[in-house]
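Raw record, unedited: carbonic anhydrase
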Amino acid sequence: MKRLLDQIIEFNRSFVEQNMFEPYMTSKFPDKKFVVLTCMDTRLIELLHASMNIKNGDVKMIKSAGGVVSTAFGGIMRSIIVAIYELGAEEVLVIGHYDCGMSNLNPQRMKQKFLERGIEERTLEILENSGLHIERWLRGFEDVSESIKSSVSLIRNHPLVPKIPVHGLVIDPKTGKLDVVDAGYELTEQPK
């Protein structure tokens, strides 16, 4: 049986040789001028795009566990800021989903899995002693809508994010139905 990477590289050779990439050719700038932060859930890979009429080249797509912005100056926020200032995004959509694996994630159980997979207890102690609160860092959320609102608020109030619409939505991973939990237009539109 071929290893995963070998299978991928074998397929990729024929993909390139047969010019199968041509339908996906586009620029690095999002045609629809928005950036999406969403969950890495496998059910959303094609469903989210189809449910929003997004095609290759339309948007900047950022994925993280739970679609969560957990820190104001981490990689997720940096990606959003780059999408806005360097790539022309004019709106931000934070999209979580029902039945998310980050919902009620158990940090204690996760720490046990670290140990079972060969991470030494001493390593966890060193991380804790250096200021990383592992359980807080791994903690999920109880309510996806509240989690999305929290991430929207962090983005919207970030000192480096201009006054642009930042929206929060939750998608049903079975049907693709989107529920708006926080629309950002009212906060950015000028009174007439």
